[in-house]
Write a structure and sequence with these properties.
By secondary structure, the protein is an alpha/beta fold. Strands 4-3-2-1-10-11 form a six-stranded mixed sheet, covered by helices on one side. A five-stranded mixed sheet has the order 5-6-7-9-8. Strand 5 and strand 6 form a beta hairpin. The radius of gyration is 18 Å and the shape is globular. The relative contact order is 0.20.
Length: about 270
């Protein structure tokens, strides 16, 4: 996939970032979205955000499935329309100079594979959402990062590293966080934030046994599933939650020591 780039102007010396993940349109939680918009609007009045990051699985991809039972009530174009509207609503409460990022998740990437075992032939011309006239204007406002298991999938904003995530499991945040910290240069005192598991994790320091390591990890959970799709009925969601990471970081001299602060704000 070709990365869609947005013109980058001179970088400020400090960054203020908001990040969410896993909206799974059209299964997004409207209450969580409203809470997010209120949060962004309130905080933005005090000190404008320089970056907003959607950490992937913006789209559910049910509408692109070859299995009719996967999407009984909506089409792929329906997903595109709702996703573009969601991004527009978020953009509407941010300042014009805020940089907009969409890191593709596994559900997003499933659409763009054009896999004959996954995407029916009649939909393959829609797999590139940046070429679909009715929604491409909004999608192209967002810098899109491909879903790759490696550094290429990471967005680095000074000491902050963002990615969607590949691993699952109880300690997957820390394992993948350390892997990406090493892949992105191994510099200490960085915060690695991801989504993917739908389980919010407050920023916490990595450990090996009782030994504290000089990296922190966080997970923003999800903003999805007011009504769970059929394929989720047998899965446990007790640990799931909706949250937004708010972080501030110095962009100069961050390699010399910790230069960020962050909190996880629940949207439940």
């Amino acid at each position: 996939m070709t990365r869609i780039s947005v013109r980058i102007e001179s970088m400020p010396k400090q960054a203020r970032v908001a990040a969410i993940s896993c909206s799974h349109v059209p299964h997004q939680s409207e209450s969580a979205i409203e809470a997010l918009l209120n949060l962004l609007s309130t905080l933005n009045d005090d000190k404008p955000f320089t970056h907003f990051v959607h950490l992937g699985d913006l789209l559910e991809a049910q509408g692109a499935s070859v299995h009719p039972e996967d999407a009984p009530e909506h089409s792929l174009l329906d997903e595109y329309h709702e996703a573009a509207n969601l991004l527009k609503r978020i953009r509407g409460v941010l300042r014009p100079r805020c940089k907009l990022h969409w890191l593709l998740g596994n559900h997003d990437a499933n659409i763009q594979q054009r896999n004959p075992k996954r995407i029916p032939r009649e939909l393959r011309q829609l797999c590139d959402w940046n070429s679909v006239p009715v929604v491409r204007k909004e999608f192209q406002r967002w810098e899109q990062t491909p879903y790759i298991n490696g550094k290429e999938a990471c967005l680095e904003i000074g000491p902050l590293i963002f990615l969607h995530g590949f691993k699952c499991g109880n300690n997957s945040d820390e394992l993948e966080g350390l892997e990406m910290a090493y892949a992105c240069g191994g510099f200490a005192h960085r915060l690695i934030t991801r989504g993917h598991t739908h389980q919010p994790v407050e920023p916490r320091q990595c450990r090996r046994g009782k030994i504290k390591l000089p990296w922190h990890v966080a997970n923003v959970g999800n903003t999805a599933f007011d009504e769970r799709p059929v394929y989720m009925e047998r899965k446990s969601t007790e640990a799931w939650g909706r949250a937004c990471l708010i972080a501030e970081a110095d962009l100069e001299g961050w390699k010399e020591g910790r230069s960020w602060q962050a909190e996880l704000v629940r949207l439940d």
